[in-house]
Amino acid sequence: QVQLVESGGGVVQAGGSLRLSCAASGRTLVTYTMGWFRQAPGKEREFVAAINWSGGVTVHADSVKGRFTISRDNAKNTVYLQMNSLKLEDTAVYYCAVDPRNRAGTALYLYEYWGQGTQVTVSS
């Protein structure tokens, strides 16, 4: 099993910044993609960003391009999501996920392991 623990969520004013972190532990994975998804109240969970094992491939949803940046530190088994210029519509629970097949995809079904989520609230 793989355990994922997110941190860094909180309340921030519109236009502000937050950095989310997600640390992976447990079963040893050879190479894997790490991704971020989010779910707002009453809405389906949606893709935010993904990064492959080497970090050479990153994918960001159109809604966050130019504002959010995904990165990772394999020595720490940790993925980060730097969120700048936050908007009210970015309010959601943010989930970290792992695709053990390293596909750097956007679909939820590709990701086998999920964290518990961290709340991000953007206020006006």
**Residue fraction in strands:** over 45%
Residues in helix, % = under 10%
Rounded to an integer in angstroms, the radius of gyration calculated over CA atoms is 13 Å
Helix segment tally:
0
Low-confidence stretches: none
Q: How many beta-strand runs? A: 11
Structural class designation: mainly beta
Main beta-sheet annotation: 7 strands, mixed
Rounded mean pLDDT is 95
* Global shape: globular
Salient structural properties:
single chain; 124 residues; mainly beta; 11 strands; globular
Any overview of this molecule?
It contains no helices and 11 strands. The protein has strands at residues 2-7, 10-13, 18-26, 33-39, 46-51, 58-60, 68-73, 78-83, 92-99, 113-114, 118-123. The termini are far apart.
Please outline the helices and strands.
Blueprint: E1 2-7, E2 10-13, E3 18-26, E4 33-39, E5 46-51, E6 58-60, E7 68-73, E8 78-83, E9 92-99, E10 113-114, E11 118-123
Parallel strand pairs: 2-11
Antiparallel strand pairs: 1-3, 3-8, 4-5, 4-9, 5-6, 7-8, 9-10, 9-11
Provide a brief overview of the structure.
This protein is mainly β and 124 residues long.
